[in-house]
Amino acid sequence: MAVPCVRVSVEDGEATRRRLADDDLVDDAHEITGEAGDLYIPVTDADAVPDDLSVVDFDAPERRTQTNPADLLGYEPTYERLGDVVIVDEDDPERARDIADALVESDVRAETVVDRASKIKGETRVRDWDVLVGDSTEAVHREYGHEFAVDIAEVYFSPRLATERHRVVEQVSEGERAFDMFAGVGPYAVPMASAGAEVVATDINETAIEYLRENAARNGVADRITAVAGDVREVAEDYEGWADRVVMNLPHTASDFLDTAVELAGDDCVLHLYDIQHEDDPFGPAERAIRDAAEPEYDVTIETRREVRSYAPHELNVVVDARLTRR
């Protein structure tokens, strides 16, 4: 069966494989294959492959020697990877332990396996974890060419939002000024700085800001990011009318901070407001809240309405991109 592969010359094969492996994009379930002077490297996510690489469909053979957790369990477990930390979400402790054991015995790279032990809680948006394998909840996550150190026991981070973050970053222009109101460890701020923006990033979680500064240095953009630990409503006083772009990734409560976002906005500013709403009207509440906060000082144009992911039965995590133009 054809699978997405990066096609490169044999001479560039190993360097390209390492590059894709650094971003966790190599599909270990299929063999790297040579044909007519080219190598075909199977990838897990064609959309995440850097634009300078060629992705084609190729009939790469399956790897026969790989052992998957499903081979050991007799069913397909649900899990996600964050660097070398593997995350499961099981209500049954015995089932969680069985999955952890199978992950370790399989060919999945896992130094730590954790099970979610609570929902996200508190203003710092962290949760409790049961550590099933290993002794560290710290990982280095690679995403679209960037590295992020993160401790999931101390800060909020979701690898599931990588595509959405990349969508926003692709809109960033060289020299623009971007404000990330709830920045976490920097998954928006760092790539925006890499794209040429001057970034101010705030978070109420001081540990998250420490990681953000580390990640800015790790990715070579420390000189373009100002990271501030504290309430964004207090920080905004120093950046009134400053921003060309404002990221508001705090679903459930971001709308409560729209007055602050408008205070930050310059004469022409794009807001990325994330929200969680019922599927019957997923975008209306955010759009109405933006207009209530920005008009009549600004004209409001809704540029994008997008479902990011399903959040719960009949509830959606959505984003509204709104352009504010000062009258």
Description:
Keywords: Cytoplasm, Methyltransferase, S-adenosyl-L-methionine, Transferase, tRNA processing. GO terms for molecular function: methyltransferase activity. This is Class I SAM-dependent methyltransferase. The radius of gyration is 21 Å and the shape is globular. About 25% of the residues lie in helices and about 35% in strands. A 7-stranded mixed β-sheet has the order 13-12-11-14-15-17-16, sandwiched between helices. The chain folds into 3 domains: about 5-60, 2-Layer Sandwich (Alpha-Beta Plaits), CATH 3.30.70.2580; about 70-135, Met-10+ protein-like domains (GMP Synthetase, Chain A, domain 3, 2-Layer Sandwich); about 160-325, Vaccinia Virus protein VP39 (Rossmann fold). The mean pLDDT is about 95. It is of the alpha/beta class and about 325 residues long. It contains 9 helices and 17 strands.
Which terms summarize this structure?
327 residues, alpha/beta, Alpha-Beta Plaits, GMP Synthetase, Chain A, domain 3, Rossmann fold, 3 domains, 7-stranded mixed β-sheet, 4-stranded antiparallel β-sheet, globular, TRM5-TYW2-like_MTfase
Give a brief outline of the structure:
It is built from nine helices and 17 strands.
Shape: globular
Order of helices and strands: EHEEEHEEHEEEEHEHEHEHEHEHEE
Assign the CATH topology of the largest domain: Rossmann fold
Strand order of the largest sheet: 13-12-11-14-15-17-16
Rounded mean pLDDT is 93
DSSP strand count: 17
* Cα distance spanning the termini: 56 Å
User: What is the radius of gyration computed over CA atoms, rounded to a whole number of angstroms?
Assistant: 21 Å
Instruction: Please name the CATH architecture of the largest domain.
Output: 3-Layer(aba) Sandwich
Number of helices: 9
In CATH, what is the homologous superfamily of the largest domain? Vaccinia Virus protein VP39
Helix content: 10-25%
Number of domains: 3
Strand content: 25-35%
| CATH class (first level) name of the largest domain | Alpha Beta
Q: State the secondary-structure class.
A: alpha/beta
Low-confidence stretches: none
Specify the biggest β-sheet: 7 strands, mixed
Domain SAM-dependent methyltransferase TRM5/TYW2-type: 79-326
GO molecular function, one term: methyltransferase activity
Pfam family, one: TYW2_N_2
Keywords: Cytoplasm, Methyltransferase, S-adenosyl-L-methionine, Transferase, tRNA processing
